[in-house]
Amino acid sequence: MSTPTGPPAPPGGPAVLAVAVEHARRGVRLQVALRWVLVVFVALTVAFVPPAHSLVTCAVIAACYAVFALAVAVWVHRGGDRAIRLAWIALLGDLVVLAALTLLTGVATPQSWTSDVLITGFLLLPVLAATQLRPRVCAAVVVPTVVVYLVASIATREANQEPWSSLLLRAVIAAGVAAGCIGLSRIQRSRVEQIGGLVQTRGELLAELGDLEERERTSLSEHLHDGALQYVLAARMDLDDARDSADPEAFDRLDRALTETSRLLRSTVAELHPAVLAKAGLPAAVRELAATAGARGGFTADVRADGWPSDLRTTADPLLHRTARELLANVAEHARARTAHVTLTFADGRAGLVVADDGVGLGPDAAGPGGGHIGLASHAVRIEAAGGRLRIGPGPSSGTVVAVDVPADPA
């Protein structure tokens, strides 16, 4: 049977590995502490339930075991990560000591109770192995422990005059404890990986948070500079022409420029603070977002809200509006799409938002840790916190389909 000695390698990157190593270090510390329970158990057994023969040999073995436990504790304390990775090997030393004492006291001195007491110490070894975050390593310890426990029980059965039924029942209990410890090790490993994934996601979000405000400022500045400001400058030039020549066409151009400036400013203000969301409802607010994003990205956008009553206001409206803005902005900036379709639905206390485009597409992990789309990742976290779900998939022929489903109560 192979006995893996490498370090844990959970998926997810350095943050997950760091969490796994820290929890592994705690587990090894617990293992070192519990070993002293076993050392005291062996010493007290030899002292208060001594064998009729070979007492000196048993005392020497118990003393050497105490020295071994001390050496392992010092090695783990000073050995760093390498000691953490290899500390499980010391469990095989525990197994050898218990097996030697049990066989020595059970076969050589059958008239004593020493082996009957010592054999119960085998049940602590699977618990020590369960402190590992590697189920394979745990199995590499507990399987030999159960085998040696059974062999020792059989070897001392005749001397102790124990019936086979009793021996087999004890073996079943030992196997059950071993299986439970392997399962516990797997559960602990899974929890550590989940915690590590959350730590990594948090780190990525915090790393991007510092740049988020600057990007928003830059985007707003470009929007105003390339849109409303250009119309204002053109209107100023037309106003100068109108003053000099009183040309009616100059006044017409001035009117168009000011009208377009007003539209662009309203659009920008609506993105920053969507008053239309409360006044006209989510479908109207999303139509404004779609029109603005379509004009910016050069694609045609339509909004279908047949499944959303026009007078409906829900608790999920702000979240869905922010998500729609992020998704449409991604279509405008990255998708190189020709068309985009937005669908809003509400039924049975749940609100739905679907944004589909025919662009270049996104990967299914775009909203996850390390997906490279911090906006999608942050919105996915908000949606999950609200009890909903954000799913990303490919379109029927090309592009991307993003579906959002969240619980919503009428407001």
TrEMBL record:
Residues 315-410 form the Histidine kinase/HSP90-like ATPase domain. It is a multi-pass membrane protein. Its main location: membrane. Pfam families: HATPase_c. It is found in: Cell membrane. InterPro entries: HATPase_C_sf, HATPase_dom, Sensor_HK_TwoCompSys. GO terms for molecular function: ATP binding. The chain crosses the membrane at residues 32-48, 54-76, 88-107, 113-130, 137-155, 167-185. Keywords: ATP-binding, Cell membrane, Kinase, Membrane, Nucleotide-binding, Transferase, Transmembrane, Transmembrane helix, Two-component regulatory system. This is ATP-binding protein. It comes from Pseudonocardia yuanmonensis. The lineage of its organism: Bacteria, Bacillati, Actinomycetota, Actinomycetes, Pseudonocardiales.
